[in-house]
Amino acid sequence: MSSIRYVLDGEVRTVSRVEPTRTVLQHLREDLGRTGTKEGCAEGDCGACTVVLAELDGAKLRYRAVNSCIQFLPALDGRALLTVESLAERSGHGTAAGLHPVQRALAESHGTQCGFCTPGFVMSLFALYKGQPAPDRKAITDTLAGNLCRCTGYRPIVDAAWTMYALGRSIPTSEQDWLRAPAGSTSRAAAASEAALARRLRAIRRRRGFVLRHPAGTFHAPRTVAELAALRERWPGARLLAGGTDLGLWVTKHYRPLGDLIAVGEVAELRQVSMEDGCLAIGAVVSLTDAFDALAHHYPELSELFRRFGSPPIRNAGTLAGNVANGSPIGDSIPALIALGARLRLRRGMARRELALEALYLGYQETALEPGEFIETVLVPLRPPGLHLAAYKVSKRFDQDISAVCGAFALTLAHGVVRAARIAFGGMAATPKRATACEAALSGQPWGEATCVQGAAALARDYAPISDLRASAGYRATVAGNLLRRFYLETAGQEPGRPCRPPVSPLRVGDVQLEVAG
After folding, report:
1. How deeply is 134 buried, as exposed, middle or buried, from its count of CB atoms within 10 A (0-12, 13-18, 19+)?
2. What pLDDT, on a 0 to 100 scale, did the predictor assign at position 517?
3. SS3 449
């Protein structure tokens, strides 16, 4: 039986004889007495439980914030865990001199009142502090999108994000360690201490898969795709675990036993993004953060949709293939991928097959995956000439909200005529679904007002939406047609490949910075 090995405050910790679905938050608060990390929502929404994981990324370390409330303890294996207690110096703890620059900036900016949410804000800002040397306001607000404060207000917290870098750089470089040195630091002392942490992580890195056995279920963590394929064939009833952003809620909210698990997160071959036969090939273990970055590079029109998908901690943990395999009717990445003509490479043992993404979904949370089969790669075609693309998410909040309707539109025009159309919606049916009747109404027609009206009318043949707490059926049907009209108005006469909407530029009024369309 193997043990979980991770680094905490410079020391290697070993955990064995633990239920694989025990969360990192439970381990911190109940096993280690680290109660600085809080539990708020227990579903990855409020950010009170945010911690940072440091992991090897080639020769360097990468720091990313995650929600400890829905991360299972085996996710720590081979990584370094940082909590709010990790940041303050052990000597001088509780004094301004002992505080980390992030903590000190929050205190001096009056960025806390009741303090319950503060540890989560600290850790989200710490991930930014170590990841970006000079973030703009948009980067700061995006970083905090997964952290909820009910009493302080966000202005002083944003102010702290501006000042934490100056406080960090005010520390003499000879006294900076990797923890206090901000991104972009040239401190040799910091580089040396960070290199020491990297060596410690390499020392505990596994070359082979490991297994945790527990009465509640066996946890398998393969290291190669061949090992994963063999395990999946042998244990077809086991649940595949990637980022845990969905399965974590089954445990924390539904109290469901998960049984046997096969964790795919350490399969190196599935953590790659590459170019393959005119497609962007995104491995099944690539995080949403990295997958969205790669997709937005080729399709900048999707940037806002990706920005509004969950929160940074969710995107850091979750995977694109996991979002696809889950098959949620409101999975916001899926309509855009369908509109782009994405395909899936599926594997069972040594056999592989490809399937159009829209063909994966047979019904509500029912897929065409065969027993023992798994998604190996998501294949997204590169941009064809003349493509106009847009994706719109309609929800009650800008950040951290479930879509009422999410629509994606991909039209290829030649001399003003629609040569090809792919349109898909989420939230309109039991699964994400193509609008084939609408596509047929548009194809071969001049891209004009009359064609847009015909396409909108055809949507009634594609969808029979339901009413629920998010929206009524009538609202959804109206919004879907209006989004098609919006797409027409924004693309008529525009060059392909450019985002439909004008860029957002900041406007500062006193101490408040507003976002206005340029």
Report:
1. exposed
2. 34
3. helix
Tally the C-alpha atoms within 13 A of residue 443's C-alpha that lie toward its C-beta. 11
Distance CA 356, CA 472 (A): 30
Q: Cβ distance 404 to 479 under 8 Å?
A: yes
Residue 507 in this model has a pLDDT that exceeds 80: no
- pLDDT tens across 62-103, in order? 999 999 999 999 999 999 999 999 998 654 444 555 899 999
Quote the CA–CA distance of 52 and 374 in Å, as a whole number. Answer: 29
Does pTM surpass 0.90? yes
Cα 395 off chain centre by: 18
Q: Which residues contact 128 (CB under 8 A, 6 or more apart)?
A: 135, 139, 140, 143, 161
- Taking the chain, what is the end-to-end CA distance rounded to the nearest angstrom? 60
What region, left, alpha or beta, does residue 277 occupy, with left being phi > 0 and alpha being psi -120 to 50 degrees?
left
pLDDT computed for residue 511 by the predictor = 38
User: Among all chains, which residue has been given the structure tokens 């065409």?
Assistant: 368
Phi, psi of 47 (to 5 degrees): 85, 0
Structural contact between residues 218 and 260, judged by C-beta atoms closer than 8 angstroms: yes
Distance CA 483, CA 407 (A): 7
Q: How is 211-230 classified by DSSP, letter by letter?
A: EE--TT--EEE-SSHHHHHH
CA triplet 406, 356, 414: central angle to 5 degrees?
70
Q: Taking residues 226-236, what's their average pLDDT?
A: 96
List all residues 6 or more positions away from 476 whose beta carbon is below 8 Å from its beta carbon.
404, 405, 427, 428, 463, 465
pLDDT for 329-358, tens place per residue? 878 999 999 999 999 999 999 999 999 999
**Which residues face 57 on adjacent strands?**
60
pLDDT for res 431: 92
Which residues contact residue 498 at a Cβ distance below 8 angstroms, ignoring those fewer than 6 apart?
Answer: 301
Chain length of the chain:
518
Give the chain's domains with CATH numbers: 4-204 (3.10.20.30), 387-491 (3.30.390.50)
